């Protein structure tokens, strides 16, 4: 039986359907009434013997388990991973990475880091990207983030960092935000944070979708081949839809309009059959080259620039099934960096070493004891035979007299037998040294890669980083902390430090603290080589009575043909009557939605429709806001008039039946049957570009 089928069968055995069943207690006893407690008379006291009421209320009282200290808010999905070929077998004995005939089931959980379970999806934050591979050799967990580095170098600082970024303890404010004094006080005093701070202040902290987000293993791990030879490795997830982000103004508005934006997006994509896909890639470094890269491979605040070591593709992951129950699966899934299989091992990265302790310790508290691996979402497909017994939530009935090794009464079983790679064997590495609390001198370069990241950004991305730093530090009450952060930024880039200082009311540095080395890595920018596709982009089509029905239908068909998701928004929910007396179904009322929930907006022809929309301030704001956020805007025929009414600056519009594209605004003067197919091709091409970053919006009203 294939592992994917085996995992599905395993989960099927614990699924419960209530259709056509009778209400019972947890002991299976049928209940005739569940709306009133057992009383001594209709107005008398409730009786203690009402076991059904007691059981029902007691279970409710204990429904919630402690949320994760970090990564509390998440969304998850099932899928599978399959390697392209077997080339990686030269470097690892891990079967699921090297045998293209093996399809491995996976469960992936995406998450924010700082906020509680009830916080919004679109806050500025790191995103977790944790993958559980149910391999035939046991479970392997790749517990990563959407950023390839971290704030600190040694896990002993993790409690300090999390305490600093969490809501301040005296008033539990702010929720899911890094814009406050304690975080930036920590940053100002810990220069090792500066590289990660550049990532956090960039657009990477505002992903458009979990489906459009990279993932990284963060640490340098070690692959071990069948002969026992080790190779250092960095692990990368690359989304096939490309890596795209929201803009800061959008994220704040989405948090109010739809705080479940990313969670909903993932769920709806899978339900609609638009299965998200990622490619797993690796950067490999031989042990002989460990010290030749110019930085320490064990430092989790460093990347390996792709110009030095290219990312080589290994295989593809597809997420194709949503969980049946959020709590049972997404909330109870337990990841652990130390869940490895033969062929994958650790390095001496001090942050990774601490995570290997911390994750197990965390699950023991959250999930009620040592038997959390019995929860269906955590169970491996590989057979489990061990001497672990009893404990809270024990789900197995062990038979036999022995629960120890070695034994004769149980025939010596379970027996330790076999050699690597059939069994896991820790990589043999010579380790010696004095017991000291001291960091290697090779960890002391705190700024060069922060500078590399900033140098690699395009002008719009740099502008966003400056704006983010101004916003964050503008929320800091203590001016001396603002000034101290600017001093740190002056080691990264002098111009950056000056621009930030000018926006937050502190003196700008006059000279760079550290000269900018001038190096860059184009792979670090999301805009240098974007993936251009309109697939799964959500398009708002603004309509009202009198709309061009034929043109609208052609528009919708063209968008769907290219994988986009058009939705018709009208002044009121229900149907609109087209100019040729057709009924068109409005998907939603425009005032229940917002432009920030869409990737583009199109206004079809129809003089009466446009006249009605022009009288609707919400519709005008919808177009204006989308324009300010750099989104593709389309209009044809009379629809152009709504763009004029919205005051879209100097944008040039089509006349005389031509097609004009001006900084992502695509217009055609024609309508209905005379509208050229080329218009739809041009519009789709602009939607695929995601944003028109060069658009000047300074003259557009807010």
From TrEMBL:
<keyword id="KW-0575">Peroxidase</keyword>
<dbReference type="InterPro" id="IPR002226">
    <property type="entry name" value="Catalase_haem_BS"/>
</dbReference>
<dbReference type="InterPro" id="IPR018028">
    <property type="entry name" value="Catalase"/>
</dbReference>
<feature type="region of interest" description="Disordered">
    <location>
        <begin position="1"/>
        <end position="44"/>
    </location>
</feature>
<dbReference type="Pfam" id="PF18011">
    <property type="entry name" value="Catalase_C"/>
</dbReference>
<keyword id="KW-0376">Hydrogen peroxide</keyword>
<dbReference type="Pfam" id="PF06628">
    <property type="entry name" value="Catalase-rel"/>
</dbReference>
<keyword id="KW-0560">Oxidoreductase</keyword>
<keyword id="KW-0408">Iron</keyword>
<keyword id="KW-0349">Heme</keyword>
<feature type="domain" description="Catalase core">
    <location>
        <begin position="24"/>
        <end position="413"/>
    </location>
</feature>
<dbReference type="InterPro" id="IPR024708">
    <property type="entry name" value="Catalase_AS"/>
</dbReference>
<keyword id="KW-0479">Metal-binding</keyword>
<dbReference type="InterPro" id="IPR010582">
    <property type="entry name" value="Catalase_immune_responsive"/>
</dbReference>
<dbReference type="InterPro" id="IPR024712">
    <property type="entry name" value="Catalase_clade2"/>
</dbReference>
<comment type="function">
    <text>Decomposes hydrogen peroxide into water and oxygen; serves to protect cells from the toxic effects of hydrogen peroxide.</text>
</comment>
<dbReference type="GO" id="GO:0004096">
    <property type="term" value="F:catalase activity"/>
</dbReference>
<dbReference type="Pfam" id="PF00199">
    <property type="entry name" value="Catalase"/>
</dbReference>
<dbReference type="InterPro" id="IPR011614">
    <property type="entry name" value="Catalase_core"/>
</dbReference>
<feature type="compositionally biased region" description="Basic and acidic residues">
    <location>
        <begin position="1"/>
        <end position="20"/>
    </location>
</feature>
<comment type="similarity">
    <text>Belongs to the catalase family. HPII subfamily.</text>
</comment>
<dbReference type="InterPro" id="IPR043156">
    <property type="entry name" value="Catalase_clade2_helical"/>
</dbReference>
<dbReference type="InterPro" id="IPR041399">
    <property type="entry name" value="Catalase_large_C"/>
</dbReference>
<protein>
    <recommendedName>
        <fullName>Catalase</fullName>
        <ecNumber>1.11.1.6</ecNumber>
    </recommendedName>
</protein>
<dbReference type="InterPro" id="IPR029062">
    <property type="entry name" value="Class_I_gatase-like"/>
</dbReference>
<dbReference type="InterPro" id="IPR020835">
    <property type="entry name" value="Catalase_sf"/>
</dbReference>
């Amino acid at each position: 039986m294939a592992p994917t089928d085996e995992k599905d069968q395993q989960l099927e055995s614990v699924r419960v359907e209530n259709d056509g069943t009778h209400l019972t207690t947890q002991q299976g006893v049928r209940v005739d009434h569940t709306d009133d407690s057992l009383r001594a008379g209709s107005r008398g006291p409730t009786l203690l013997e009402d076991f059904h009421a007691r059981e029902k209320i007691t279970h409710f009282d204990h429904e919630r388990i402690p949320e994760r200290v970090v990564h509390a808010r998440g969304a998850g999905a099932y899928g599978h991973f399959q390697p392209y070929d077997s080339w990686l077998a030269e470097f690892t004995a891990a079967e699921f990475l090297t045998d293209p005939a093996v399809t491995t089931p996976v469960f992936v959980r995406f998450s924010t880091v700082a906020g509680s379970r009830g916080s919004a999806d679109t806050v500025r934050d790191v995103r977790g990207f944790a993958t559980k591979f149910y391999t035939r050799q046991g479970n392997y967990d790749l517990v990563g983030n959407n950023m390839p580095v971290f704030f600190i170098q040694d896990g002993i600082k993790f409690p300090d960092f999390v305490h600093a970024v969490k809501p301040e303890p005296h008033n539990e404010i702010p929720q899911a935000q890094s814009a406050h004094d304690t975080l930036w006080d920590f940053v100002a005093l810990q220069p090792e944070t500066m590289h990660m701070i550049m990532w956090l202040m960039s657009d990477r902290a505002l992903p458009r979708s979990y489906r459009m987000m990279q993932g990284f293993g963060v640490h340098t791990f070690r692959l071990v081949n069948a002969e026992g030879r080790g190779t250092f490795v960095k692990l990368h997830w690359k989304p096939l839809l490309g890596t795209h982000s929201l803009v800061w103004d959008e994220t704040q508005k989405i948090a109010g309009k739809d705080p479940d934006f990313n969670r909903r997006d993932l769920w709806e994509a899978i339900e609609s059959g638009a299965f998200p896909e990622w490619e797993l890639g690796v950067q490999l470094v031989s042990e002989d080259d460990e010290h030749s890269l110019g930085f320490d491979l064990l430092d989790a605040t460093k990347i390996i620039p792709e110009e030095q070591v290219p990312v080589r593709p290994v295989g593809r992951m597809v997420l194709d099934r949503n969980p049946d129950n959020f709590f049972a699966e997404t909330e109870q899934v337990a990841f652990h960096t130390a869940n490895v299989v033969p062929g994958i091992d650790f390095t001496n990265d001090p942050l990774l070493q601490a995570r290997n302790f911390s994750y197990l310790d965390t699950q023991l508290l959250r999930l009620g004891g040592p038997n959390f691996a019995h929860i269906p979402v955590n169970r491996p497909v590989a057979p489990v035979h061990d001497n672990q017994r009893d404990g809270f939530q024990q789900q197995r009935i062990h038979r036999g007299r022995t629960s120890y090794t070695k034994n004769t009464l149980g025939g010596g079983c379970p027996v330790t037998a076999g050699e690597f790679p059939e069994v896991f064997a820790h990589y043999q590495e010579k380790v010696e040294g004095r017991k000291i609390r001291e960091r290697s001198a090779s960890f002391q370069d705190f700024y060069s890669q922060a500078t590399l990241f900033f140098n690699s950004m395009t002008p719009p991305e740099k502008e966003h980083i400056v704006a983010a730093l101004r916003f964050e530090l503008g929320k800091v009450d203590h001016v001396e902390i603002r000034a101290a952060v600017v001093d740190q930024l002056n080691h990264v880039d002098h111009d950056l430090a000056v621009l930030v200082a000018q926006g937050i009311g502190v003196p700008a540095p006059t000279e760079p603290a550290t000269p900018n080395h001038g190096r860059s890595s184009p792979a670090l920018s999301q805009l240098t080589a974007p993936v251009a596709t309109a697939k799964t982009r959500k398009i708002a089509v603004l309509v009202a009575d009198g709309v061009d029905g034929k043109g609208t239908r052609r528009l919708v068909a063209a968008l769907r043909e290219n994988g986009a998701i058009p939705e018709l928004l009208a002044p009121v929910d229900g149907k609109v009557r087209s100019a040729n007396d057709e009924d068109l179904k409005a998907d939603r009322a425009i005032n229940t939605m917002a432009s920030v929930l869409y990737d583009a907006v199109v206004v079809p022809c129809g003089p009466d429709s446009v006249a009605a929309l022009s009288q609707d301030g919400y519709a005008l704001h919808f177009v204006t806001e989308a324009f300010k956020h750099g989104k593709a805007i389309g209009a044809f025929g009379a629809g152009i008039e709504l763009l004029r009414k919205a005051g879209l600056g100097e944008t040039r519009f089509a006349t005389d039946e031509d097609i004009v594209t001006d900084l992502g605004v695509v217009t055609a003067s024609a309508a209905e049957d005379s509208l050229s197919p080329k218009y739809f091709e041009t519009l789709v091409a602009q939607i695929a570009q995601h944003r028109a970053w060069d658009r000047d919006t300074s003259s557009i009203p807010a």
